[in-house]
Automatic annotation (TrEMBL):
It comes from the Bacteria. Gene3D superfamilies: Conserved hypothetical protein from pyrococcus furiosus pfu- 392566-001, ParB domain. SUPFAM superfamilies: ParB/Sulfiredoxin. It comes from Spongiactinospora rosea. This is Streptomycin biosynthesis protein. Residues 2-83 form the ParB-like N-terminal domain. InterPro entries: ParB/Sulfiredoxin_sf, ParB_N. Residues 187-224 are annotated as: Disordered. The lineage of its organism: Bacteria, Bacillati, Actinomycetota, Actinomycetes, Streptosporangiales.
Length: 306
């Protein structure tokens, strides 16, 4: 793509590019690796040294890979890529990047932010404690594995107890969704409540606390309605020659057909997942759903008018 069409990076390198590093890259005979560009803003996410080196060589174009996510996610990607390769970030750069990510991705755990910025979780925790009141606070944070964990697990258990008091027959999935806890924790709370015990194990019981604010029900789309709409769509696509007669098309049809199950089939699958790995399967299912959502977004972007 034309070098002139690109904008300078929103870079974690507070001191800008290193001129000597640019010169060394420009003197190499090998082609420069592709840079990463934020498509919505045309800002360079990763590769400013390579961009400067290409310009120094007198080149007018450079190979690039696009990123289409939000600007805050583009900065996180920039930090991660710059921490992983190329000219190392200084400690001051890493700390500043972690401090900024705390403000934009406050729901991430200290370890998750630390793994991106290349600092310790202890450093992130100290930066978070020094952060201003503008940084939101949450009882749950997302870890490096994508799982949501409570900062104070007692709060989630109390909410689960309140859900069971309101709906004694609630399923584990409903309890977990409304209380913001894992399925295994929801199961433990339900067993405790049914046996007349406190939802909290002894080690989590402290001074009496005010009852948590009621958590609104987690609204889910009607599954029967989704299933009824999906199956005819898949059957129509399976008759499309353009999809049936190519390997990639057949893979798309297989992908869609696997998910075109009736509600009873989904219930049967869920009932037969072993308890010891139910949480892991649930996490994998959510990640599959996220991948399908990204796939759908890419198709919609391609189909959008230019």
């Amino acid at each position: 793509m034309p070098i002139a069409s690109l904008r300078a990076a929103d870079s974690p390198r507070r001191g800008g590019e290193d001129a000597e590093h640019v010169r060394l890259l420009a003197e190499q005979d090998a082609p420069l690796p592709p840079i990463v560009v934020h498509r919505p803003t045309m800002r360079v996410i990763d590769g400013m040294h390579r961009l400067r080196a290409a310009a120094l060589r007198g080149e007018r174009e450079i190979e690039a890979v696009f990123f289409d996510g939000p600007r805050d996610d583009a900065f996180v990607l920039s930090v991660g890529l710059n921490s992983a390769h190329g000219l190392p970030l200084t400690q001051a750069d890493r700390n500043a990047a972690a401090e900024r990510i705390i403000t934009t991705h406050w729901h991430w755990s200290d370890r998750a932010i630390a793994s991106v910025a290349g600092v310790s979780a202890k450093t992130v925790g100290a930066l978070r404690r020094r952060s201003t009141g503008e940084v939101p606070h949450s009882n749950a944070r997302v870890g490096r594995d994508g799982r949501v964990r409570a900062v104070d697990p007692a709060v989630g258990r109390r909410r689960a107890g309140a859900v069971l008091a309101e709906r004694p027959g609630a399923s584990l999935r409903e309890i977990a969704a409304r209380a913001g806890i894992s399925l295994s924790t929801a199961k433990d709370v339900r067993e405790r409540v049914r046996s007349g015990q406190d939802p909290l194990p002894p080690r989590q019981r402290g001074a009496p606390r005010a009852a948590p604010a009621p958590t609104p029900p987690c609204r889910r789309p009607d599954r029967d309605e989704i299933d009824a709409e999906l199956r005819p769509i898949v059957q129509t696509l399976k008759r499309d020659p353009a999809l049936r007669q190519s390997e990639m098309g057949r893979r798309v049809l297989t992908l869609l057909d696997v998910h075109a199950l009736e509600s009873a089939e989904w219930d049967k699958l869920a009932a037969n997942v072993p308890t010891h790995c139910a949480t892991t399967v649930a996490d994998a299912a959510r990640k599959c759903a996220a991948s399908l959502q990204n796939f759908a977004s890419e198709l919609e972007r391609r189909d959008a008018p230019r």
